[in-house]
Amino acid sequence: MEPITIKDIAKALNISTSTVSRALRGSYEINPTTKRLVIEYAEKMNYRPNPIALSLKENRSRAIGVIVPEIANNFFSQTINGIEAIAYNRGYHVIIFQSHESFEREVENVRHALSRKVDGLLISLSGKTEDISHLVNAKESGMPVVMFDRVSNEISTHKVIADNYDGGFQATEHLIKKGKRRIAYLASMPNLSNNESRLEGYKAALEKNGIEFDNSLVRFCGFYFDDTRKQINDLLDNYSPDAFFSVSDRVALDCITAVRAKYPKNPERFDFVGFTNLKVAHLLFPPLTTIVQPALEIGQ
Asked: CA 229, 233, 236, 242: dihedral to nearest 10 degrees?
């Protein structure tokens, strides 16, 4: 069945298309009786406005582009929930793109979002992104751009982030108060803004507590378990860590898995802190203490 149009409603009710259009918009120019007839008939026939026609008429798409590294990441899925809740209540749709931690794919996502004429762009940078000229160009063309979580100082725009420095500080001091002195810092990539801030918090907590910073305990594990496992095994074999601070869900889980494989009988000899939004962190063994990011609120 073909979707019904304003012309179809006008023909069925023997009135003009402009009258139907104004009635559907709730215009005061249309008398209440006609307005009621139009709305009742539109509902009966399951009329839905044509979004393409509306976008051409209003010169806006009522759609917001969202670019994230990976939807499967628990933090980003929660952030998208927050974004969609606000967008839907304001009459906007959300178009979601994934960069899969690829700079080239991120650039293509931005290009595609612009070609879809979205009304704004929300983005968390990929792990491989250093050049953000594609975002600078989008903003200079008039596209509103908001960055979240993984941001860049190379562009002047709104940014929504957690207090990563304080989170890194609290995570590290928590381990120090438990008597740990050889705390390994684990992250995916060194160039991500949130990782940089958490590392600074880690260093500050060590300094405050009179522990010398040891760069050999700082490891960047990439995005794959095999890479994390190699870094963990090297730490355990050569640098004697007694605790691990992992700055993402994935790295935290990979770290625990690698330690359990290395020490299957007593992995609880180590302490673990993650910067995570896992709802099952308390069920893990060994236990994982977490610094919770307000993912939903960041999205909203």
From this structure: 0
User: Could you give the CA distance from residue 63 to residue 270 in angstroms, rounded to a whole number?
Assistant: 47
Is there a contact between 213 and 243 (Cβ–Cβ < 8 Å)? no
For the chain, which ranges sit under pLDDT 50?
none
25-52 tens-digit pLDDT:
777 888 889 988 998 898 888 887 766 5
Residue with tokens 């000229």: 133
Give the pLDDT confidence score for residue 55 in this predicted structure. 58
- State how far the alpha carbon of 186 is from the alpha carbons of 25, 111, 195, 261, 271, in Å: 55, 33, 9, 18, 13
Contact 124, 98 (CB under 8 A): no
- Alpha-carbon gap, residue 25 to 64, rounded angstroms: 23
User: How far apart are the C-alpha atoms of 3 and 294, rounded to whole Å?
Assistant: 42
